[in-house]
Amino acid sequence: MTRTDRLYALVEELRAVAPRPRSARWLADRFGVSSRTIERDLSALQQGGVPIWAEPGRTGGYCLDTAHTLSPLGFTVDEALAVMVALGALATSPFRELAASALRKVVAVTDDRRLTETAELAARIHLLGDENPSGAPPDLAAALRTGQVLRISYTDRDGGATERDVEPMGFVGKGDSWYLIGWCRLRDGLRAFRGDRIVRAEPLIERAPRRPLRAEDLGIVEGRLRAVGPDVTIS
Known about the structure:
Layout (H helix, E strand, L loop, with lengths): L2 H15 L6 H8 L3 H13 L4 E4 L5 E4 L12 H12 L7 H13 L3 H11 L20 H4 L1 E8 L5 E14 L2 E8 L4 E6 L3 E10 L28
Antiparallel strand pairs: 1-2, 3-4, 3-7, 4-5, 5-6
Helix pairs in contact: 2-3, 4-5, 4-6
């Protein structure tokens, strides 16, 4: 069994018995490796974002929080390639660290044959961007989910520096550049802040009111906005 296969199998083994724990020794016997190897594998899964924790004590071991995981998807080579390209395109976005973590998970649940073929194809795909791109602060990624007001230090196109409180409302991406769309309390209006000009973004305790955001409110002169999310209907 390859390490990739073992990582996948470890998650499935812990999922099957959850919420009961499995000891490192039991897992080592199950997969024919040493306990130290199992512990390294579990550590790698934890670092990749898999919600595994250790329960101490004689009857303890490792547990998987199934409430925060999804069953792995059986990607085809073409689907895995599309996911790799999409996640790679986020390298200068506020979501770059989350995209890298998601890519590690895709790799962890892809069998060696498909992974090798996908990697060979991905090596033929490149993204054209600026010579030295600088991305938006990764702390912005959680702004929409938490709804917290952000206190940002911002440098405008003329080099002027300001500090202002912003209610995050959305993001717009164009090439290597990503813009935070928010209600600026300093200007009392809707504004777009280019990510690489945001020097610092500090989330405040206050949660912003949920303001409506329509594409026509953004006043886009060139180009056409398109949504990135699927049209999901929940019944």
